[in-house]
Design a protein that fits this description.
The structure holds 2 protein chains of 2 kinds. Chain A is mainly alpha-helical. Chain A has one domain. Chain A contains 12 helices and 2 strands. Chain B has 17 helices and 21 strands. Classes of the chains: A mainly alpha, B alpha+beta.
């Protein structure tokens, strides 16, 4: 298994396309914030202002990188039949599966975290962090968002091993996750997503959005200047079901993925 | 049981039947790819119902998991047994849903807790109106707890109406968001308003109560429009009105076919407006019959026993519409009233979306050009004076108010309102050491005096609210303008915020608007006197007005305005 894990790490480090995609995502996030303040304009919002208002969107789009990582790294061995050769050469299915699952479950969520956090960190260092929400709370939220990302990674792994094709993982992460993130912040809500979002522990995207969302209130004056206030608190009663469901569903997805792979005809 | 839940159960049970067949097929073809279908049942169980998860459907979810366990085995016999067991478990959800009193229960209490807490934190007139939040919570929390237990949608709306009525603020209101709550809410209001005895009551300028909107059948008793009613079941009409469950309560009746509210009544910020309407709810209070004491044509006191003949809702709606009538035309539309007079109807302070969301000086240039052009055309046709009908104006943008007022105001700079300063550090409206809001910049506008020496009369009523209040305040300060009405305008000018719950939305004053002294602009405080009524010329609501409105069907206020212009 260690050989397979080392191999996965090597694939990850050499996957230029993946790094390019991750860097592009991070660059887009940075540009979104930079251009919102008018380029080099004087009125520049601190990074915590963007975090308070848009962290679920950043995190939802950043989870694309988790799906890409699973597809391009864990799923790569299906396209070139490496895994077939591995199995025929005597390696057990369990070693093949978990040798890929373990680095994916660690690396993909951390990649998503990096894609989310690095542009925010860079922007904050350049233009200020501000105090719209406490930075410590932001760090806490980002770390909590690892759990839904791990769950989503496990789901992508399951699809890759069932379909023996990385396309499903890549498609899911690039289409479904961002759509869900946007739908939850859109003014006209999609009824089904609204109902599912009412139970944030139900799906990984809804959990991710809820953990990144700061409850807010807004007011304005006669000159239509808008003022936002944010509540940094996240009740434990919201957090724990999301974490517990993430852990349980990660185990379920891995179980399903492994069971299918274990008896699957690899032809 | 809801149709979507029945569909979900049916679909999942049918899926289990499909799995039973598929178990044999997969075994025959010896292919593992069919295993995926065993994962579909849990997706169906969660995904089909648009109403979301509920504890009552737990057997459905458990049954889906049991059926899905067939994924982990290749033996068709075990798969079939699991599918059958799953289907049986799913079917259990039907009696559970039918017998569970909390099945799809609406969270009325949770909504109250959440919305009232939000309002407590963000309502800007707490000190100004002397609101005791603890007392309000202690009074209403048990009521909402009971409503949550009984799931009474009608009582929910009425209780919210009573809660909102406590603030005497035209910007505080609750609307339900669940469509199926509409019918019970309308029914609850209909019942609370009581019976129809063939008449409504209105308070006259001299303090007496007169019958209005009377049914022809009451003529045999000598009761007609204008007949003075001295007692209702032995009590004074305003005393009876105050005993109505809807007195000082914000409520509305929604017509689903017309897709609009047909009756809106509320508590009044200004005490004078409350007194004006103090008799109107009386005429619905009573049992199968009521004893009415009235003055006949000779001034002698008579008594009549009137039997109930339906619900009071329709007659009340007609009464309110007649008293609160306005020029029937579109928003910002003109109507030629007389030889030298034209009327501009303003139903709401909104021109278009682009200008509504802008505070720029030129945002309403297009609107102003249209008004300017129309006035010039009218002037060429002999029009000298203008009547602006603000009755029932629902408010909107204060910048549009300035845009319209600027057309008619004398040349020079005029004051509108003052912004409050926002405390960036504490994320709240700034207050000084004494607890008063801190003044920011003044909002002003430049007058054009388009009418020259022409006169302007503005018509208002108690439903003229928000930006309508602001326009009234601005107009009554201008020397070439007279503001008239049976009542003052509503008396609510602070801007609005909203908080949505699961069952409804609460709106309340959220944005501070100050006057030139740094005090809360217009909105009434503990004294229940709003700041935009002093300049309103009150037209007495008397026998003459009643005859004109209810017998002759005339717009009495408009007639009075024309009379004033002809003097």
């Amino acid at each position: 298994m260690l050989d397979i894990i080392r191999g996965q790490i090597r694939i990850f480090l050499r996957a230029r396309t993946l790094h390019l995609c991750n860097l592009s995502l991070a660059a887009v996030f940075f540009l979104m914030m930079f251009l919102d303040s008018g380029g080099t304009g004087e009125l520049r919002k601190p990074v915590t202002d963007y975090i308070a208002g848009s962290l679920p969107v950043f995190a939802g789009f950043a989870s694309i990188s988790a799906g890409l990582t699973v597809g391009m790294v864990s799923g790569a061995d299906f396209t070139d039949k490496t895994i077939n050769h591995e199995l025929t050469s005597g390696r057990s299915r369990a070693v093949s599966f978990f040798g890929r699952a373990i680095p994916a479950l660690i690396g993909a969520p951390l990649t998503a975290l990096a894609v989310t956090a690095l542009p925010l960190l860079l922007y904050g260092m350049l233009f200020g962090f501000g105090d719209v929400v406490p930075v410590s709370e932001v760090v806490r939220r980002l770390l909590l968002m690892l759990f839904p990302n791990i769950r989503m990674t496990a789901f992508c792994l399951m699809t890759v091993f069932i379909l023996k094709n990385p396309t499903a993982s890549i498609s899911f992460s690039t289409l479904v996750m961002p759509a869900f993130a946007l739908a939850q912040v859109a003014d006209t809500s999609v009824p089904m997503i609204g109902k599912l979002a009412a139970h944030p522990f139900l799906l990984a995207p809804s959990g991710l959005s809820r953990l990144g969302k700061f409850d807010s209130w807004y007011t304005y004056d006669l000159s239509l200047n808008q003022y936002f206030t944010y509540d940094p608190a996240l009740p434990a009663s919201t957090v724990w079901p999301i974490i517990v469901c993430a852990v349980i569903m990660t185990a379920v997805y891995l179980l399903i993925g492994y069971h299918f792979f274990h008896v699957d005809d690899m032809a | 049981m809801k149709l979507m839940d029945i569909t979900a159960v049916t679909a999942c049970v049918a899926a289990c039947g499909g799995l039973c067949w598929l178990a044999g097929y997969a075994d025959r073809v010896k292919s593992t790819k069919w295993k995926i279908f065993w994962l579909i049942v849990p997706l169906l169980a969660i995904g089909v119902s648009k109403h979301g998860l509920t504890v009552s459907l737990l057997p459905l979810y458990l049954g889906a998991v049991i059926a899905a366990l067939g994924f982990f085995t290749e033996r068709s016999g075990i798969r079939r047994r699991l599918a059958a067991a799953g289907a049986a478990c799913m079917l259990l959800s039907v009696p559970v849903c039918l017998l569970n009193p909390r099945y799809r229960a609406k969270d009325y209490l949770g909504d109250f807790e959440k919305l009232s807490a939000c309002m407590r934190e963000h309502y800007v007139l707490t000190d100004h109106k002397g609101i005791d939040w603890d007392a309000l919570y202690a009074k209403y929390q048990p009521k909402f707890a009971e409503i949550d237990r009984t799931q009474d949608a009608g009582a929910n709306l009425l209780t919210w109406g009573a809660f909102c009525g406590e603030f005497h603020d035209g910007h505080v209101g609750y609307t339900y968001s669940i469509k199926e709550d509409m019918a019970p809410a309308n029914q609850a209001i209909r019942e609370a308003l009581g019976h129809d005895y063939g008449l409504s009551l209105m308070r006259c300028a001299d303090g007496s109560f007169a019958a209005v909107h009377t049914d022809e059948s009451l003529a045999e008793y000598g009761i007609r429009n204008g007949t003075v009613i001295t007692a209702w079941d032995g009590r004074s009409p305003d005393e009876v009105s105050k005993a109505s469950p809807l007195y000082d309560v914000n409520f509305f009746v929604y017509d689903e076919e017309k897709e609009e509210p047909t009756l809106i009544m509320s508590s009044y910020p200004d005490m004078d407006n409350e007194i004006f309407w103090s008799g109107v709810l009386c005429a619905g209070v009573g049992g199968d019959s009521v004893t009415v004491t009235y003055l006949d044509e000779n001034g002698a006191e008579q008594t009549a026993v009137l039997s109930q003949c339906g619900d009071y809702l329709d007659r009340l709606t007609g009464t309110v519409k007649t008293v609160g009538q306005s020029v029937e035309t579109g928003n910002l539309m003109w109507k030629r009233i007389g030889r030298t007079t034209a009327c501009l109807r303003i139903k709401g302070m909104s021109f278009d979306m682009k200008s509504y969301n802008s505070a720029e000086d030129d945002a309403y240039d297009e609107m102003k050009n249209e008004i300017r052009q129309q006035i010039l055309e009218y002037q060429q046709d002999g029009v000298k004076d203008v009547i602006i009908d603000l009755r029932g104006n629902e408010g909107g943008s204060p910048h549009m108010v300035n845009g319209v007022t600027a057309m008619f105001a004398p040349k020079g700079e005029h004051y509108c309102l003052t912004n409050c300063v926002w405390d960036e550090q504490n994320h709240c409206w700034a207050k000084d050491a004494s607890g008063r809001y801190v003044k920011g910049n003044d909002i002003v506008y430049q007058g054009e005096q388009l009418l020259g020496d022409g006169r302007i009369i503005v018509l208002v009523d108690s439903a003229t609210v928000s930006a309508g209040d602001i326009m009234t305040k601005e107009m009554e300060g201008l020397e070439n303008v007279a503001v008239i009405g049976f009542t003052e305008p509503n008396g609510s000018s602070q801007a609005v915020g909203m908080k949505a719950g699961k069952c409804g939305t609460l709106s309340f004053s959220n944005c501070v608007v100050l006057d030139e002294n740094g005090d809360i602009a217009i909105d009434s405080g503990i004294d229940r006197q709003s700041g935009d009524g002093d300049g309103v010329e009150i037209i007495p609501f008397d026998g003459e007005a009643i005859r004109a409105l209810f017998d002759e069907g005339r717009d009495y206020l408009m007639d009075k305005a024309l009379e004033m212009l002809e003097r």
